[in-house]
Amino acid sequence: MLKMKRRDILVGSGAAATAILASGSADSLDGASTSAPVLTVYTDDIPSARDLALKTVQGANSIAALKGDLVQLWKERIGNHRGAIQGYTSWSDYILMRGLGEEQGLRLRAEAQLRHIGKKPVFRWVMA
Fold this sequence. Notes:
This protein is of the alpha/beta class. The chain has helices at about 5-25, 45-55, 70-75, 90-105; strands at about 40-45, 60-65, 85-90, 110-115, 120-125.
């Protein structure tokens, strides 16, 4: 009889999630349109968030660092984006971006806390 421990399942699912995140294509964004470019945002003061964002950006997709007044940044740049938005952010940046996105009709498609990546936890999320 095959015996699996909970830890083995969690480690395997973490590796699968990392492989999907590393692909960075719009096809892998849960429920996001594949025709529109994906905007990737990240919390500027978390090095692991920046590294993940840079690894997933491809071709026509763009990237934006979250620093300074985030509401103003949303109004000037992020809110004008038409397509999916994915983020690698702190919890507080995630909550603020999610609220601003919902005000414009975007819906949360995926969220996950990425553990053991750095000293500060990073949250990966997708809105479309």
